[in-house]
């Protein structure tokens, strides 16, 4: 828990530096295609430091995540044969069996498959790259990504903007418990992929 506490405090102080917003943008961008940690933790930390700017932070997160999703899509289109082995070996949640199931989900649900992955703890990167590999309509993919990621990030921003300091006090008081919950959700997302897609 000390590691999470230190990480939380370190991220929180970025709101007072010129690097908080660029870091949020980059984290959202890389998470959508390859990085395993979602950007929500930095979005929450920055928003708690500046509740009045929470919508601005949510917008930065949305733009970064959308661009990252587009990059993931084009990685799937043009470089999957070269990169597939790396993703299967080093990125949690990627297996050939899961990718076959993702293809079936795209065939059946299209827009809703992307939307669900973008809004829930299901690893979004599997769907961004999968959308490119399986040649999902690009405009549908982008539209679903913007709606789902926007709903997710702006919901976080709205809660913090509305409740502000009480949310910060709650997080400070129950930080250890929330850290455990965060890890459970993160791991649970990957577990859900493995269980649901087999």
Question: What would a concise description of this structure say?
Answer:
This protein has 198 residues and is an all-alpha fold. It has eleven helices and no strands.
How is this structure best described in words?
The chain has 198 residues and is an all-alpha fold. The protein is built from 11 helices and no strands. 80% of the residues lie in helices and 0% in strands. Helix 3 (40-49) packs parallel to helix 9 and helix 4 (54-78) packs antiparallel against helix 9. The longest helix is centred in the C-terminal third of the chain and has 26 residues, at 138-163. The two termini are 33 Å apart. It comes from Geothermobacter hydrogeniphilus. This is Cytochrome B. Residues 38-156 form the VTT domain.
Question: What is the fold's blueprint, element by element?
Answer:
Elements: H1 2-12, H2 20-31, H3 40-49, H4 54-78, H5 80-90, H6 96-109, H7 111-119, H8 124-133, H9 138-163, H10 165-173, H11 175-196
Helix pairs in contact: 1-3, 2-3, 2-4, 3-4, 3-9, 4-8, 4-9, 6-7, 6-8, 7-8, 7-9
Number of helices: 11
Gross morphology is elongated
Give the overall pLDDT as a whole number.
Answer: 77
Q: What characterizes the major β-sheet? A: none
Unreliably modeled segments: none
Beta percentage is: under 5%
Q: What is the N-to-C order of secondary-structure elements (H for helix, E for strand)?
A: HHHHHHHHHHH
- The tally of domains stands at 1
């Amino acid at each position: 828990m000390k590691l999470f506490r230190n990480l939380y405090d370190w991220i929180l102080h970025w709101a007072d530096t010129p690097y908080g917003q660029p870091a949020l943008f980059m984290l959202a961008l890389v998470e959508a295609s390859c990085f395993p940690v979602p950007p929500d933790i930095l979005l929450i930390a920055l928003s708690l430091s500046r509740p009045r700017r929470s919508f601005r932070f949510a917008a930065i997160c949305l733009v970064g995540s959308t661009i990252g999703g587009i990059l993931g899509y084009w990685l799937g289109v043009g470089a999957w044969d070269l990169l597939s082995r790396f993703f299967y070996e080093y990125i949690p949640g990627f297996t050939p069996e899961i990718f076959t199931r993702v293809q079936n989900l795209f065939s059946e649900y299209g827009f809703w498959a992307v939307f669900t992955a973008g809004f829930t703890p299901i690893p979004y990167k599997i769907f961004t790259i999968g959308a490119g590999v399986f040649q999902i309509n690009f405009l549908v993919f982008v539209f679903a990504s913007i709606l789902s990621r926007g709903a997710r990030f702006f919901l976080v921003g709205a809660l913090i903007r509305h409740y502000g300091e009480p949310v910060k006090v709650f997080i400070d008081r129950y930080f250890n418990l929330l850290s455990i919950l965060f890890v459970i959700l993160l791991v649970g997302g990957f577990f859900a992929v493995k269980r649901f897609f087999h």
